[in-house]
Design brief:
Strand content: 5-15%
CATH superfamily: Spore Coat Polysaccharide Biosynthesis Protein SpsA, Chain A
Distance between the termini: 26 Å
CATH topology: Spore Coat Polysaccharide Biosynthesis Protein SpsA, Chain A
């Protein structure tokens, strides 16, 4: 699980070209070392926020993230998702330039 969590955070935090990124991770009461790994990332990256909640469905975790988000845009990432290093930087530019209300990204 440690490698999985670190890889996922690396996809989001380290690899993105957009620097003003708020990352909210909702931990559903993990029973392994996930919580300590997440808290290590909080100390290393000032833009990472970790929330803990009782184990629930993805929708509940996403709603928790939305409630605490402070930015203008919200995006969700699941474990199997791939993220191009410029995606977070490019999507808002396209939204503004083409008056898109809800973008959808795919590969």
């Amino acid at each position: 699980m440690k490698a999985y969590v670190e890889t996922l955070i690396g996809k989001i935090v380290v690899a993105q070209s957009f620097l003003d990124l708020e990352v909210i991770i909702v931990d559903g009461d993990s029973t392994d070392s996930t919580a300590s790994i997440l808290h290590w990332h909080i100390e290393k990256y000032s833009n990472v926020i970790v929330m803990h909640q009782s184990n629930g469905r993805n929708a509940e975790a996403r709603n928790t993230g939305i409630t605490h988000a402070r930015g203008n845009y919200v995006s969700f990432m699941d474990s199997e998702d791939l993220l191009h290093p410029d995606m977070i930087a490019n999507v808002p530019k396209r939204i503004c330039s083409k008056s898109i209300k809800m973008p959808r990204c795919s590969i």
